[in-house]
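for the writeup, i need someone to sanity check this before i put it in the appendix. the sequnce is what the collaborator sent (i think, or maybe the updated version? ugh). structure was predicted straight from it, no edits. if anything looks off just tell me and ill rerun, i have time this weekend
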Amino acid sequence: MIIIASDGIWDKVDSKEAYNFTKKYYNEREPVRACDELIQQASRRWAKTEEVRDDITCVVIFIYK
């Protein structure tokens, strides 16, 4: 899998967490749902720590044999 994301995600979610949030959608072949999950997790963390949030953008690419 490849995760491309803006700093709005990486400021609140590290790469291992991002993988763990999105891996459950791999077998379902649902990269859009994986993006949604990652965006929601980062948004929640921004809401807990800041009055505003940074831009949050991501692309999840699943690679299959």
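The mean pLDDT is 95. The chain is about 50% helix and 10% strand.
thx in advance!!
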